[in-house]
Amino acid sequence: MKLVIDSILRNKNIIVFMTLFNIVLLSGHVSPVYAKLGIQQVLISGRENPLGINTLSPSFSWQLTSDSHDVLQKAYKIEVSIDRHFSGGRNLLWNSDWVSTAQSLHVMYAGAALTAGQTYFVRLHAQDNQGNTAVSAVQSFHIGLLEPADWGGARWITKDVLPDSLINPLPLSSSKLRMDKTYDLPVFRKTVQVSRKLKSSIAYISGLGHYELLLNGKVVDDAVLQPGWTKYDKEAYYVVYDLTKSWKKGKNSLAVLLGNGFYYIPPIKGRFQKHKVAFGLPKLKMKVVNTYEDGKQEVIVSDESWKVARSPITFSSMYGGEDYDASVLPASWTMPHYDDRQWSNAQLVDGPALTAQETEPVRVMQEFQPKNIRKDADGRSDVYDFGQNASGIVSLKMKGKPGDTVRVYPAELLNEAGLPNQKHSGSPYYFQYIFGKESEVEWRPRFTYYGFRYAQVQRRPAQNGNIQILDIKAQHIRNGARQIGAFQSSDSLFNQIHGLIDWAIKSNMVSVFTDCPHREKLGWLEQLHLMGPSVHYNYDVARLFKKSLRDMRFSQTANGLVPEIAPEYVQFDWGGDMFRDSPEWGSSAILLAWYAYQWYGDLTFLTENYPMMQKYADYLQAKAKDNILYQGLGDWYDLGPERPGVSQLTPKGLTATAIYYDDLKVLGKIATLLDDDEGKRRYDSLKTEVYNAFQKTFYKADVASYGSGSQTSLAMPLYMGLVDSLNRDDVVNNLVAAIVKQDTSFTAGDIGHRYLLQVLQQENRDDLIFAMHQDDTRPGYGYQIRKGATALTESWAALPNVSNNHFMLGHLMEWFHAGLGGLGQEDHSVAYKHLRIEPRMIDTIKQCNLAFESPYGKVSFQREDKNYMLDIPVNSLCTLVLPADTDFLVNNKPLNMFKTLRVADTLELELGSGIWKIVPHKK
C-alpha cells in the first residue's frame, strides 16, 4: 500500500486520500496486521528520538497495537540507560519495574540524574489485560544545552554590529521608514581536521534570523527557515544535529549562510517592508562535540577564529524577497579545499538566550509543476500558473552567462493585463538570481517565502543573449507536522471546502500560525482558539501549540496584556489600541491552553501557562467598566453593508465580554485541576459578577434577544452559557429566525462564525448549517470556490483587494469532523481516552469517512447510510451513537451482547479497541 504523507489528490467530485496508518477510506477498510501486542509511536517529551530536549525530567508516551478486541494496558515498565544495548550495571539509570496502570501518556522520568549534552536510550515494556506482553524497539533522546555554561567557549559571531541606537524590537506601525546604511549579509567558514575514526558528532547551532549549515559542501538537512522565529529579545532557538556520518578523515569545512528573517527587516527602498523590526544584525553561535572511538573529545566552537565574508545573498527580507549574486563568491566556497585566507575574522557580539527548538522544522512539503504558461511577445517574460495558491518559493533550473539576471514576481492573483498583482499582498516582492561563472544552475531562495499561485519570470540578459529556463517548480513550504487526519463525504462541495480550508491551514502553519503567507506573516492570536479545533483534527500540532503559548508568555506586557500578535514584532497604533488589545484575540492565552490539555492530556499546557492566564485575567478585570469590556475589534470581517473590517453588526462590548466570561469559566476549571482553591473561588465569583453585568447591559427581555440581535449577538451568549435556562429556547428560536430571515445565509465574522456553528450543532440544527453552506451563489466557502479560489480567502466574498490565502474563517472544518462525522470525546475524557462518535445528517449525507490519530493511536470511522466501520485504538473506549429505530449487528453478533444505552431517539453503543463492523440486522 502506498503511503501519502502530505498530499491530497483532488478532482471535482471526490477527495482521494491515504492516511499515515495504512487505511484507505474510499476503497474499503484495510486493516493493518498487528501482533498480539505491540508498542509504537514512542514519544519522549513529545517527540520521536528527539535531539535536544529542554529538560532533565523527560516524559514518555507510547501507543499500543493489537489484533484483538477490548485491549487495555494493564502495566508498563520503562528502562533508561546510557548504553544502547542495555548491558545493565551503572549504565542503567532507571528501571521503573512493573507499574500497574493503564497510563501510557506523559509518564515522568524518575531515575538517576541526567546530564545536559548527553544521549540516553529507552526501552519500554507493556502488559495488556489479555495476558500479552510487548517490548519496544530501543529509542533515544539527547538532552540539549540547558545553561549558558553548557555552551563552553562558543560565542555569538557576526560580520557587522548594529548600533544600539538602531535596535528596535517593537516598532510602532506608524513609525517612519528609516534609511540607514545597508549591511551585507555574512557567510562563515571553519576548517576542521579529523585524524581518526569518530564515534559520535553532535552539533548545536543557532543562526539569526535564519541559517543554512553545510558540511563539506552538503546541506546537513532538508529544513528551511531554521530556526523558528521567536521573541528575540527574550530568547532564540538552536537546533541539534547528529553529524557523525558526515565527516571524512582529513580536512573538512563547516560553512554557514545567514538570512535576516524576522530578526532584522532591512529598510531598502523599492522592496516591500511591512514593519521595521530590528533586534540586531545576523549572527551565529555554534558548538560541535566530536567524540572519537578512543574516548577522546574535540570541541569546535564559534569564535573570532572563524572566517567571515560578504554573502552571495545580497538581499534577504521576509517581506521584500531575496537576491542572489553568484559573482560574489565561487560555488566552491563551502568546500574544504577553498582558500579563505583573504576573508576577515569574525567579530564577537552579544546575543539572546538560547533554547532548543522542539517544534517540527519548516520543510518543502509539496511541489507543483506549471499548469499553464503565458509567454510575452518579447520572449523575455513568462507567467506561470501553478494551479494552487500556497505558501512557498520558486525553484529554478536555468542557463545563462555572467551578469545575466532572472527575476521572479510571485502573486496570488493576476491583474487585467494577465500579470502578477501584488497590490494587496505586499509589493514589490521578488526573487532574483544574477549569474556568475557557472552557466547552468539550480537555485531557489533560502530565507524568505510568499503566498502565490502565479509567478512571472523575467529574463534580463547582461548583453544580447539568451537565458534559458530549463525547469521551474513552485515549492510549498510549511511546518513539518504530520498529517494525522482526513475527511471525505458523499457531498462533493463539502469535500472541496475541506480542501480549501486545509490549504489555508497549511499555508499559514510555519513556526508561527500566521494570518497570511505574504503581506503580514504575523501570529494573530484569535485564530488559535477559534481554528485550533479544526487544525488538531488534521495535524500533529501539540508542540506547535506549545510554542504558540510560549510566544504569548514572552509577548505579554508588564501590566498583563496579551497583545493580539505573538511573537509581537510590531505594535499597531492605528485607532489607538484597537489592533493590540482585543480580548477575543488575547484570550487564546487561556482558551488554547485549555483545549490543548483536553486534546493531548499534557498537564504542562496548564502549569506552564497558568501564571500568564492569571495576569491576563487581572488585566481584563482592571480594564472592565462595571464588569463589561468594550475594547478591541469585535466580530472582525462580519458580513455587513460596508467594506469588511471592524465589527459592523454586533456590539464590540458583547463579543469581548462574552469571551471574558468564557475565560473566567475555564480558569475556574483549571484552578480546580491545579488545586488552586483560592483561584477557583475568585474566578467563580467574578464570573457571576460578569454574568449579571452582561444580562443588564445586553439582554433585552421583551424580545428575548441580546445586543443587536445579530447572529453573533445571539450565538455567543448561547455558547458561553450566558443565557438563563428559562430563556434559552426563546433565544435559540430568535437565532434560528435571524438565520431564516437572511434566507439561511450567515453574517457572522471571524469571531462569531465558530460559535454560530457550535450552537446550531448543539441544538441539533445541522440542517441549518447544511443550508447556510451549500449555496455557492452568495458570499461563503462555495462562493469562493466558484470565483476560482484554491485556498480560503480573507473575506467571505473572496474580494481581490484583500488576502486570498488566509487562516481565519475556516470554522466549518471543525463541523466536518466533529459534527457531520461526529468525532469527539466524552465529557470526562482527556486525550480521546474515551471517544464519542455521533454522526449527523445521516439521511442527507449518505456517506462520510474520517481518519484521526489520537494520542492513543489510529481512529477510523466510515459510514455509508446506516452501515458503519470503526477502528478504535488499544487502551481506548468509544461510544458510538446510532439511530434507535434500527436493530444492528456488531461484528455479526446481536446488539444485546454489547453495552448499550437508549437516549431519546438514539442508541449509545460502547465499544473497546479493535475493528468493528456495525450493520442493520435484516431479520
TrEMBL record:
It comes from Sphingobacterium paludis. Residues 382-467 form the Alpha-L-rhamnosidase concanavalin-like domain. Signal peptide: none annotated. GO terms for molecular function: alpha-L-rhamnosidase activity. This is alpha-L-rhamnosidase. Residues 197-366 form the Bacterial alpha-L-rhamnosidase N-terminal domain. Its EC number is 3.2.1.40. It comes from the Bacteria. GO terms for biological process: carbohydrate metabolic process. The lineage of its organism: Bacteria, Pseudomonadati, Bacteroidota, Sphingobacteriia, Sphingobacteriales. Residues 482-818 form the Alpha-L-rhamnosidase six-hairpin glycosidase domain.
